[in-house]
Structure formats: C-alpha cells, structure tokens
Design brief:
10 helices; DNA-binding; about 220 residues; homodimer; about 75% helix
DNA sequence: CCCTCTTTCTACCAGATGGTCAGGGGACTT
DNA sequence: AAGTCCCCTGACCATCTGGTAGAAAGAGGG
C-alpha cells in the first residue's frame, strides 16, 4: 500500500473510488446504491431480495446484477461508498487546524454529525460488523487504514506527552462501538414508543467525550 | 395481566415458561433451542436455515418443526427462554437485600455477568432489537414488564429523594443499549485480531456505572 | 396383544432467490 | 449507413426455502 502524499489526495481518491463514474448509467448506479444501503441497513443483507430492491426502484433485477455482478458485489460497493463517506468527513477534520484535544473533540462531533444526517449508514455498520457478515473483511479494508492512521497519530501524541498513555486501539474501538450502538439505541427508543430526539444523541456524545477525556487528557 | 404476588413466584413462572417440559423429547427441545440461539445470534434470523440447523444437530428439519411449529415459533421460543434467563438473573438481585445505589450496581454487575457467561444471548438481543425483526414485539412482551418494574422502582426512589430526578426510561434504554453494544464491540475486537479480554468488559462496566452514578446519585 | 400417544423420519411441494444467456435499443463514431 | 459500445430487459434455470402429509418406531397402559 502506497501512502498518499497529502490529505487532500486521500480525500479525492476515497471519494472517487474504483468504479467507473461517468456515462449515462452512473445515476442508476447511485440510485441502486442508495436503495441497497437503506435495505441492508434495516432488514439486513440476508433479508434483502434483489427482486424487491429492483421493484422499489422501478427496474429489473438484472440491471442490478449488470452493474454489480452479484449480490455480494453490491454489498461490497455499498460498504465501500459508505466507508468513503466516513473517510471524507474524518479527513476533513484531520486536514483542519484543530490540535490535540480540540481535534479529538472535532472528530467525535464530525462522526456524530454523519450519524445524524445518515442514520442508514449506522445501520449498515451494525449489519456489517457482525460475526458472519460477508463484508466484514471489506469494511476492515476500507476503514482500516484510517483507523491505523488515527492510532498512529494518538501514539505520537502520547510520545509527545500531549496525551495520556493508554492502549490507543482499545480506545478507538470503544469509541467506534459507542457510535454504532447509537443506531441500536435509536431503534429501541422507537420500539418503546419514544421518538428519538436530539437530546439522546447529545447525551451519548457527551458521555463519549467524557470517556475519551478521562482516557486521554493528560491534565486530568 | 395479573401482577405476581412475590418475586419468588415471578422467578418460578419465568423459569418454567409456557412449554411442556417433561417427556422424552425435552432434551431434544433444549438442544434445538441452544443451537437456534447460537445461529440467530450470529448469522441472524434470515441467515439461518432450518436444514442447516437440523444438520448441525444430527436430526431432520421436520423434527424442529414438530416441536416449534414454524421458524417464527422457534424464534419466539428462543427469545422467551433468553428473556427468562435474564429475568432470573435480575429478579435474584431484586429479591436480595441491596438497597439504593448498591442495588443499581448489583443489577449492572449481574447483567454483565450474564453477558460474559452467555455472549450468544447478547448477539440474540442485537439481532432482535432491529427495525424489521419479527420478534421485536415478543421481546418487548418478555422484557417489558421487568423494564416497567425497574422504571417504577426508580421513580419511587426519585420521589423519596434517594435518586436524582431524571427520565428513568431514557436512562434504562441507555444502559440497555450499552450492554447490547458490548456484543458488537467484542466482535469488532475479534475482527481486529485482538482476543477480547476481561479488561474491555470491565472498562465498559466501569463506564456505564459512572454514567449511571452521574445520572442518578443525588450526592454528586 | 392391541390401542394410543409421542417422537422422529421419508417424501414431497410451491414459492422465492440469486444468477445466466441472449437479445433489443439508443447514442456516438467512422 | 454500418459498426460498436453501453445500458437495460425478458425468459429461463438450479437451488434452496419453510412448510405439509403420512407413515414407521417405540413406549406404556389396558
């Protein structure tokens, strides 16, 4: 894996992805991805039928298979694009000027913003980060580099004494699962008859930040 | 719904459940439930095939259907038994002598103990507390009464000034999703190549207790 | 010995699913 | 106008799905 030279380059590469993106069918491909994300993220991969998916889009199942070869291929494409969305959000923060603790806080806020704007994406993450999921390795491939970078950055900060020394990977995974858990929480709230409000999300965010501060801030 | 007279009675009722439990087929029924719990909790309801399930047990699919009528019926039975397990663990604490904050802490420890001993159960919870899950109402029916009781107790404590006044239901759901999120976290850890240790679980528990203390303890 | 109840099996089915194959039609090039 | 490429579709298929019908094999009681 060649390390990208600048953050901007990484953003561009991530945004484009590997698929052909020009041509008349590009819009169809995007619509398929949108619907697939919604379906995978709610009723799950196994619960999604290509026929239903196509029916909802007013196209035939064969069109989906033409663009994405197989159902697995479609899942892979959805995961890739979603991971790219997250990458963009995070890399924007990393390219910003915030430093030290401010940067951590900015990252958390950025992720929560994505979670609020695209709740479906959280559903997909939950679906994919599951024991038997066929896309688990794919997700690892798409998000892994960013995680590695974050971990490396944290360890550099620790070396410089600007962060308390702990297990960076453990903290990252903890934060990750908190965010994904948010999707579950919102669903449970809805099942309990409560319409989820900004308040629950804000509470979770505050809680996560408190945890991170307790783990990382050298002054406390 | 008739309110049970004593806690002990509730425990007994919950443990037994509604199914016939004597007879030669009882062992088979239990084995089926065990395997179904494992399968539903990992690869999910839709991902589970009755043929595979039976194959793993060395029996025919029709035997499963004989005992549990339909796939849905099987899921219902699994959810019921799992909820009963949780109920037993929690009611034991509620029948104990701990009071006030000690009781909250005992409850949390009890749930985490169950989560550690039966990780599959957490997987099932995650699977079931999902938007399209066919067993969501069932889970609500099985766990709802306990949640209501917990909520009522908390509100009584608040009235008596032994607990800080907050939205009891919100706190409960928050705690619930933290525990369920633990299942996700453990899986992600495993995917990242780290064998989950006691430490991660302990961290989560400490974190949850801190959150609860901040929300509920009137002295802080 | 027969009768009944329980448990498990074999045989079978209708429907749905993911996927293949060949073809049609539009747009752009030469 | 012919060729070529991209996009989409209808027809078809092998396989797997949950579920039904009926019978065999015991066990136990009369």
């Amino acid at each position: 894996m060649a390390e990208p030279t600048t953050l901007r380059e990484t953003v561009r590469d991530t945004v484009r992805g590997a698929g052909r993106s020009s041509g008349r069918g590009a819009e169809t491909r995007e619509r398929i991805l949108d619907a697939a994300l919604a379906s995978f993220g709610t009723i799950g991969y196994d619960g999604t039928s290509l026929d239903d998916l196509a029916g909802g889009l007013g196209i035939r199942k064969q069109t989906i298979l033409y663009h994405y070869v197989s159902k697995r291929g479609l899942l892979g494409a959805v995961v890739d694009r979603s991971a790219a969305d997250l990458n963009v959000a995070l890399l924007e923060v990393l390219a910003g000027e915030a430093t030290d603790w401010e940067r951590v806080e900015a990252l958390v806020r950025s992720v929560f913003r994505v979670a609020l704007e695209q709740p479906l994406l959280m559903g997909l993450l939950r679906e994919v980060s599951r024991p038997g999921s066929p896309a688990a390795p794919r997700l690892k491939g798409a998000m892994g580099p960013l995680m590695d970078r974050a971990q490396a950055w944290m360890e550099r900060e620790m070396d410089a004494g600007r962060m308390r020394r702990t297990d960076a990977q453990l903290v990252l995974i903890s934060a990750y699962s908190t965010v994904v858990g948010l999707a579950t929480e919102i669903e449970v709230l809805r099942a309990a008859g409560l319409e989820p409000t900004m308040r629950t999300v804000a509470t979770r965010r505050r809680e996560l930040l408190r945890f991170l501060r307790a783990s990382l801030d050298p002054l406390r």
